[in-house]
Amino acid sequence: xxxxxxxxxxxxxxxxxxxxxxxxxxxxxxxxxxxxxxxxxxxxxxxxxxxxxxxxxxxxxxxxxxxxxxxxxxxxxxxxxxxxxxxxxxxxxxxxxxxxxxxxxxxxxxxxxxxxxxxxxxxxxxxxxxxxxxxxxxxxxxxxxxxxxxxxxxxxxxxxxxxxxxxxxxxxxxxxxxxxxxxxxxxxxxxxxxxxxxxxxxxxxxxxxxxxxxx
Length: 215
Prior knowledge:
There is one protein chain. Helices cover 67% and strands 0% of the residues. The protein is mostly helical. α1 runs parallel beside α5, α6 packs across α7 (122-143) and α10 (173-190) runs antiparallel to α11. The chain is globular.
């Protein structure tokens, strides 16, 4: 990632660098160049935050933290930056690394803000979000690591298993069903074995919202 100065908030600097690179990708003349830049952005946001960066970003977690874990909450709070990021992502749909990058950076913004990206496009955005999430989770399983556990924990705990189910039930029916399928599929991997049974017992119905009599 780029150097962080002392005047601008470091999160702003990181976001500006991501947007700069994605804009560069949209302007690249060849598909190969666009793919290379998108891969570079993905590597940037999945890189680990070192001790100095943690201090500047006010990260209190003592364990391993990736840049996407810092940036996702940033985009949730910054609609202008999130909208700009969405704009560039739409121009790069279909490129390798784009859907995972989209999922890592915009999952909070798209799922916690009902009107984020436009209600009429919500199904499309959630489809891409879930496609990218599947790729990330499968990569973790194949590698035997849990690098994207923070993304899974958000989808599971703050959306699917949230007590009032507001954010889940606000999704279009097909998007809700897709999200539930992804979380259910990877719950055995990311959840401690002793807790899997209870989580699945509490799993919401994919066919009905809470208001419609679902559980």
